[in-house]
Amino acid sequence: MTLAVVVLAAGASRRLGEPKALARIGDRTALQHLALAARTLTGGPRTLVVTGAHHEEIAAHVEASALDVDVAHNPDWAQGRTGSVAVGAAARPGMDLVVAPIDAPLVPGEVFEALEREWKARGAPLAGWLAPATDGGSRYGHPVVLGRELARSAAALPPDTPLRHVRSGADSLFRVDVESLAIHDDLDEPTDLQALRRRVTER
Length: 203
Fold this sequence. Notes:
Strands 1, 4, 5, 6, 7, 8, 9 and 10 form an eight-stranded mixed β-sheet that branches. Strands 2-3 form a two-stranded antiparallel ribbon. By secondary structure, the protein is an alpha/beta fold. A hairpin with a 4-residue loop joins strand 7 and strand 8. The chain is built from seven helices and ten strands. The chain has helices at 30-38, 55-64, 81-91, 109-121, 148-155, 163-168, 190-201, and strands at 3-9, 24-25, 28-29, 47-51, 69-73, 96-101, 128-134, 139-140, 144-146, 172-177. The longest helix has 13 residues, at 109-121.
């Protein structure tokens, strides 16, 4: 079983006013926070960051900060996240994908570890879907795991297909309960960024 992390960072971030991946939260960018947390996974390839509207800026940041990730550009970024999942599936063929939107940049390594443990316990189902949840499963969040066959089928869909459609095609739906509320974060507007910055400062 090989889990490959795919960070979705292709959006234009118009409401935020700056690329989400490059937004500073404490002494790190959002992308640095997420990439460092993803390192807790074992045996997989380097984290893949799928870019779009701000490809050049993000690629330059990765190079300047020596961040240990790969970068791939989604030319159809404006059509939706499923297109970025397709880019990830093409770059990591035959692998189960941990899809991590940059919208939830403070997800800790413990959540990635919990996903990996549960995925292994479930036998890494080919078309499975695994999501973290809090409050006894009443609130689901990110990142999510897509089995390799589900990821491949997602890559065959039009890029504007909603991700919930991909979820509906899963052969098995699983959850793992976690304590971190960071799985519910949604970095979208300046007020969201301010809240994340306060949380990091208060740690």
